[in-house]
Amino acid sequence: MKRLKFSAIGKIAAFAVALGLQVTGAALADSGSVTVHVGTGDWAEANIKAYVEPFERATGIKVVPIKGWSTYAELKLWQDSNNVEVDVMYMPPSDTVAANKQGWLQKIDYSIYPKEQIDNIKPAAKPPFGVGALYYSIALSYFKDKFTGGQAPQSWADLWDVAKYPGKRTMYSGHIGVGVWEIALLADGVDPKDLYPIDFDRAIASLNKIRPHITKWWEDGSDNQQLFADRFVDVGAAFNGRIGNLQKKGMPLTIEWNQALLFADYWVIPKGAKNAENAQKFIQFITQPEPQATFASSIPYGPTNEGAYAFLDEKVAKQLPSHSSLISKQVLFNPNWYAQKDSKGKTNLEKGVALWNEWILQ
Predict the structure, then answer these.
(1) What topology is assigned to 136-264+329-360 in CATH?
(2) Distance between CA atoms of residues 178 and 94, nearest Å
(3) Stretch 297-325: mean pLDDT, rounded?
(4) Residue 304: CB partners within 8 Å, gap ≥ 6?
(5) How far, CA to CA in Å, does 336 sit from each of 89, 101, 103, 144?
(6) What are the C-alpha distances in Å from 275 to residues 32, 77, 102, 278, 352?
(7) What 3-state DSSP class applies to 30?
(8) How far apart are CA 11 and CA 5, in angstroms?
């Protein structure tokens, strides 16, 4: 877009109109900054392109992007020390629910959202304490030139079947306490509707079977992507968006949507954020349909605002985990179960982290 020479407020308004984005008068009159966690690798670049740069142009508010991941432990440290270092955090669903129960998150000011935007955001993606950032899946992925002749894995049980489907394997780590248990139970034959409550003992027994065959347990999306980019592994669990970006580069990879775990992550504002008002404006801006469509075009994760699909090429849309044609094939992650506490006040999430740390060190 060519830069236009107007007065400061006129320029901001012009950009907003040109982008088709809704910015209130209060936003136009404001300035200052907002500090945002944007993740790493391709994910960070997609956030900067789709959200950070357009928001700065449209509002005049400076965004300080922090390349890193938001964590529950970090948020707890900030709350305990009364020194919050980031205004907008990106958090997985289990951490978001648990943090809200601790009273560490500010309520989202939905009064600044136009009615059309509110109506188009999926109900599960607009709780009082956060706004859905995207839908993503941890799916079985493999090199199709490795598995030929109709012998391609189609389920987590197939990933566990090392005799029928030989090859170097990778799996999602349980370092944050979720995901790995669901995959292990699905591989062991548990019906998706019976996943919760998680049977940790059965999951560990299942993991014991596959453990000797795992080349690497990955934790970060960039690491996950690099394992496949370098062909260090042939098959395994992967973030759909990371595999999607490798497919764009011509790598012969397949995403198997059957039994993929579907998650919705959230943008949240920690209690005590130094620029909370600008944080509210930032989240409202980036959960409009056009920015979400730009993000999904950069890295194939699904929008939480249904209106975004009107701005997406159909070929791109059909590769997104929240597309209607893929939803029914997947297993919906349940963050509320992980936030439940036992009689001693320990959450299922905390139990999951502790069990993983104990198991992986054995």
Answers:
(1) D-Maltodextrin-Binding Protein; domain 2 (3.40.190)
(2) 8
(3) 94
(4) 121, 122, 125, 131, 132, 133, 134, 135, 264, 287, 292, 322
(5) 19, 11, 16, 36
(6) 8, 19, 21, 6, 34
(7) coil
(8) 7
- pLDDT confidence tier of residue 25, bands split at 50, 70 and 90: very low
Give the tokens for residue 208. Answer: 């014991």
- Separation of alpha carbons 228 and 310, rounded Å: 32
Nearest Cα neighbor of 98 from 130, 53, 143, 63 is 130
**Which CATH superfamily does the domain covering 8-135+265-317 fall into?**
Periplasmic binding protein-like II (3.40.190.10)
Q: Which residues pair with 138 in a beta bridge?
A: 239, 261
Q: How far is CA 337 from CA 152, 236, 264, in A?
A: 33, 26, 15
Between strands 235-239 and 331-332, the pairing is unpaired
Q: In this structure, are residues 144 and 252 in contact, taking their beta carbons and an 8 Å threshold?
A: yes
Nearest to 87 by CA among 271, 284, 288, 287: 271
> What average pLDDT does the structure give for the chain?
90
146 and 235 Cβ atoms separated by less than 8 Å: yes
pLDDT (average), residues 191-214: 98
Helix, strand, coil distribution of the chain in percent, nearest 5: 45, 20, 35
SS3 336: helix
Q: Determine whether 345 is exposed, middle or buried from the number of CB atoms within 10 Å of its CB (0-12, 13-18, 19+).
A: exposed
Size of the chain in residues: 362
Domain positions in the chain are 8-135+265-317, 136-264+329-360
What pTM value is reported for the model?
Answer: 0.84
Is the preceding omega at residue 197 within 30 degrees of 0, hence cis? yes
